[in-house]
Amino acid sequence: RRLVVLVSGSGTNLQALIDASTDPSYGARVVAVGADRDGIEGLARAERHGLPAFAHRLRDAPTREAWDAGLADAVAAHEPDLVVLAGFMKLVGPAFLARFPGAVVNTHPALCPSFPGTTGPADALAYGVKVTGATLFVVDDGVDTGPIVAQAVVPVEDDDDVASLHERIKVAERAMLVDAVGRLAREGYTITDRKVRIGA
Ligand code: GRF
């Protein structure tokens, strides 16, 4: 199965998928990497592994809709079976999702439905939860509201700051992402009433 991964930053989740791809029994391999900006480590990782990589910046498009359509074209060019948003910091629009129906997944550094949006770890810390974690879900037209594929739980420590908490989340998130994406790719999945069932 062909994975196209979209990133906006360091790309450690991407790296975990690239590393998993080296195992032929994993059942999926990263075939291309896209970003919404240039000059990020995520794109450098792609280049280091000889993977096609592209930056598709908002300012390169006349409107948000045109950007969304252009992103879909750039991703579709690599014929993905699954599009993985891994630290991608833009909302993809309905036109993008329509190009890859049920095949866009996103990893979020909180236990959905708690703490959606771009500051999940900070919000969890501020709220005072004792556990948080990461969620892989199939993207729908909401913000971090899609049907859940997998979750991983980590403790919040009394002396945590946002950085230490997010780092702990990311360790669990990478393992959860690699495992779940591999299962989706190898076994297929169906979604009924928001329940994602993996395997025939
Ligand atoms: C991940 O925790 C992701 O869930 C969040 O930002 C982080 C990206 O990390 N949106 P990386 O770029 O994969 O290292």
UniProtKB/TrEMBL annotation:
Main EC class the enzyme belongs to: transferase
One GO CC term, this protein: cytosol
Protein residues bound to (6R)-10-formyltetrahydrofolate: 64, 89-92, 106
Active site: 108
GO biological process: 'de novo' IMP biosynthetic process
Signal peptide bounds: none
Binding site for N(1)-(5-phospho-beta-D-ribosyl)glycinamide: 11-13
Name assigned to this protein: Phosphoribosylglycinamide formyltransferase
Organism for this UniProt entry: Nocardioides aurantiacus
Lineage of producing organism: Bacteria, Bacillati, Actinomycetota, Actinomycetes, Propionibacteriales
Gene: purN
